[in-house]
Write a structure and sequence with these properties.
Layout (H helix, E strand, L loop, with lengths): L2 H5 L2 E13 L18 H4 L11 H18 L4 E3 L1 H12 L4 H11 L4 H16 L3 E3 L7 E14 L6 H10 L4 E4 L1 H19 L17 E13 L11 E6 L5 E18 L2 E7 L5 E8 L3 H6 L3 H10 L1 E10 L1 E8 L1 H7 L21 E3 L1 E10 L4 E10 L11 E3 L4 E7 L5 E7 L6
Parallel strand pairs: 1-15, 4-5, 11-16
Antiparallel strand pairs: 1-6, 1-13, 2-18, 3-4, 4-6, 7-8, 8-9, 8-11, 9-10, 10-17, 12-14, 14-15, 17-18
Length: 433
């Protein structure tokens, strides 16, 4: 693989953080290499059964509702990381009590707290196993990087409950670092941003903007994930051709379409087509879902059951694919989104109960900010996301299905064995940045 391809391999990064404030303030033509023997073995091997299958529906339901709630109030392209937001909330849930905890459990579709902790510990352990050298058809092995990291940034003048600290250290591998919010909250903000930037290879350099933290901030919980991988078989840049994409309002725009016969997974159902394109190793993939009718109705009706229906129907197949390149960024506050999803109490200065974290002061979640960036090209995908919560044939065979993604569509970047959705979004105008 040449150096240009290496530079543009898949990167996904995300940080999630919670700051708590005290109350009062593969192909033939079109891809870079042909599979040996005419087959792509890495992308057609079904993934091993997930040990987290019991919680998969809950994770999909959370991902769909988070997307649907954000999409309802945000026009245009959209990208988010359900994994990041859920991980941050799961850590925060360990300090919640009473109605605050009950609402968070409902939003996360969670059972007993220990089961929730074990679930997310299992997800992180599974994702850690995706990293390493991966073989690709007809080429030298390539490196897939996938790491997660958690850390607590607590006010040095606040006494935190030891049980809370122990659970997060044990299940989330989240050590505590002391900072001084009371006398130098700007210095604390720069320290947290530096940690996130380091863990995301400088893709998220300023997660917490000025004005979010203050001298009433008591705790910031951070979660970061870094992922870098190429397509199992890159698209050939010389096969990319400009064509028209019909935007959400119906107007056409000329954009570059990557073109090739992909050895991945394909399915078609009532009102949709889907293709899943593997990254190197075949365990991680991007799923593209193209509604047959009006995109808006499909978008508004997205649910965990629908996502499970689509991903469960995917079968190994070659697909003649025409997929636009795109690059865009989403910046969105999530406080109102999470309140609408069913957890308003955690944001209420009078009613919130986070006494499981500390009993010295009454704590509440002050604000939530989310940012995600996704870029897709012939070599793979580059993506970054962060969350601040303040406290993926032979001619003798039948012709393969064909899919031209020339109108608004959904995309997921997911871990196939666990089903965990790392990124989820929509593209309504690939020409918009």
């Amino acid at each position: 693989m040449n150096s240009d391809t290496s530079r543009r391999q898949f990167l996904s990064v995300l940080g999630a953080l919670v700051a708590l404030g005290a109350c009062g303030r593969g192909v033939r033509s079109g891809l870079a290499a042909d599979p040996p023997g005419g087959a792509t073995t890495t992308s057609s091997t079904p993934p091993a059964p997930s040990p987290l299958a019991d919680t998969g529906p809950a994770h999909l339901a959370f991902a769909a509702e988070l997307y649907r709630t954000m999409a309802a109030s945000m026009p245009g392209n959209l990208a988010l990381s359900p994994y990041s937001v859920a991980s941050a909330l799961a850590m925060t849930r360990n300090g919640a009590v009473g109605k605050t905890a009950e609402e968070m459990d409902q939003v996360l579709r969670a059972g007993p707290l220990e089961a929730l902790n074990a679930d997310y510990a299992g997800v992180e352990a599974a994702l850690a196993g995706r990293a390493g050298q991966k073989s690709i058809p007809g080429g030298d092995p390539v490196l897939v990087e996938l790491t997660t990291a958690n850390r607590l940034f607590g006010d040095k003048g606040t006494k935190f409950e030891q049980d809370f600290l122990d659970r997060l250290a044990d299940r989330f591998k989240a050590p505590m670092e002391q900072v001084d919010y009371r006398h130098d909250f700007e210095g604390a903000r720069k320290r947290i941003n530096s940690w996130v930037s380091d863990r995301t290879k400088e893709r998220i350099p300023n997660l917490i903007p000025e004005g979010i933290l203050d001298d009433y901030t008591r705790l910031v919980l951070t979660n970061a994930i870094y992922f870098k991988a190429p397509w199992a078989v890159p698209f050939r840049p010389e096969s990319t051709q400009s064509a028209f994409f019909n935007r959400l309002e119906g107007s056409p725009v000329s954009v570059p379409f990557m073109t090739g016969r992909v050895a991945g997974w394909y399915a078609a159902g009532d009102g949709w087509q889907a293709v899943e394109v593997p990254y190197a190793g075949g365990e991680l993939a991007m799923t593209v879902v193209l509604p047959a009718g009006a995109f808006g109705a499909f978008d508004r009706g997205l649910s965990g059951e629908r996502l499970a229906e689509i991903t469960g129907a995917l079968k190994p197949s070659e697909v003649d694919l025409r997929l636009p390149r795109w690059t865009f960024r989403t910046q969105a506050p999530l406080k109102a989104v999470l309140q609408a999803m069913g957890m308003p109490t955690a944001f209420d200065t009078r009613k919130a109960d986070l006494s499981g974290m500390s009993q010295e002061e009454k704590l509440y979640i002050k604000a939530v900010v989310h940012e995600a960036f996704v870029a897709v090209d012939e070599a793979g995908t580059e993506a970054a996301a962060a969350t601040a919560v303040v406290v993926s044939a032979s001619s003798a065979r039948p012709d393969p299905p064909s899919l031209t993604v020339d109108r608004p569509f959904l995309f997921l970047i997911r871990d196939r064995p666990t089903g965990e959705v790392l990124f989820l979004g929509r593209v309504v105008d690939p020409s918009a940045s």
